[in-house]
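FIELD: query
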Amino acid sequence: MTVARLCFVALCGVLAYGLWVTGLLAQANIWQADGLRRFLIFFAVYSTLAALIVALKPAILPGLFTPGALLLAIVSAGPVAPFSALAVMFSARVLGRVILRSETSHPLLETTLGLALQQFVIFAIVALPWNYPLTYALLTAFPLILRPGLTLASAAEIWRTLSHGSSDRRTSALLALNGFIALTHWIVALKPEVSADGLAMHLVIPESVRQAHLWWFSVDRFSWSVMPMGGDWCYTHAYLLGGEFAARLLNPLLLLTVTGLLFSTVRRWISDRTALLLTAVFLSTPLVQLVTGSLFIENYLALMVTGALLATAVGREQHDTRWTAAAAVLCGAALASKFGALSLIVPVMVLLIASIGPDWRARAACTGLFLAFGIHPYLNAWIRTGNPLFPFLNQIFRSPQFALEPLLDPRFRQGVNWRSLYDATFHTSRFLESQDGALGLSYLVLLPMTLIAFRRTWPWLGKAALLVSTIGFVLIFAVQ
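FIELD: result
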């Protein structure tokens, strides 16, 4: 037996031990009786239909997902909300394509860039009394009207992609598994917002903009009102077009975009079946459900970071400065969404600058784009309060508008040690506002196996992703 197989068996043993001693699978308060019954009915209906389609006509399976999900949303929330969320994404797709003008089309990366540009524009206008549904309708329609030919071509391309299936039954079965998990996220998004963060902040922002037609940036109203809000501006865009459910449905669309980027990337080196299995593992992570079922900004942030790294790789492979510029913009958009993104963005920016080569002008241009698209919320906070990170680190910046004591939550200051991954798996509530097990069970095995399987012959993107994720994991758990 090889060393890798021995390590795999040992890690599975650690996983089994953790499940045994913690009783994780038996923890209470996960399902209510009615919810579990309805979920089992949904599972039975979906499984039966999917099995019939995979057995009889597997190639048509992808073409049924989008109409089915759209019909479900229309029945549950009316037509305005789902079409508003889709309009935001489609407008971003066309806008990204218009800006990049690349010879090689990367639809999901172009969509990601378009979303980053949209939130930058919204930040520029949100302090002014111009924020009406008509304003956001015009913002959405502008790239579509500007390039009608490209708009039609993009719509046709999206439909071809979404309806393209495989005649291989095993591949279609794995696709059906991904579709089931994605549809559960979609169904949860069709329920009203109930999370504390969503009701206290992420839903307050777009609703306040809808009522007052601007955002006050007033720390007298909310201490968090000058914090980075890139993801919230994205939700505000959808909210002013279609209300709460438009914003909530945009969240799983962002998740699916991240998933699509992951799938389209890893399938370059592994089979479609293995790629679909990995995306199913990712989608089924409980933490993913937490941030998708509630109006958190983590899917937007994950999309910006993932897009930045992939755009860096495309620019490096094609020697195309347009993609390196796009990567810098996406790094900035991530920073404009959350200060904690620095733990991931700094290594991505280092890789980006290194990939450019010795051209100091190109390096300076990318750095300038990063700052232009990332630093504005911090400048805004500094001008208004004297603290660019308000209300955090006020013991250093000493703004008179907030207490000088460190704003820390002692519950989650666990640090990093040799058992951090085990504890994060089985004692997740020590690290996050979640139930134990929210990180999922697979990463306890997959992450160490990735380190064991590492080879210097790996492609650049694989090594870069491992470097960024490792640094991010250590820094996030070390300094939170």
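FIELD: remark
The first helix runs from residue 3 to 22.
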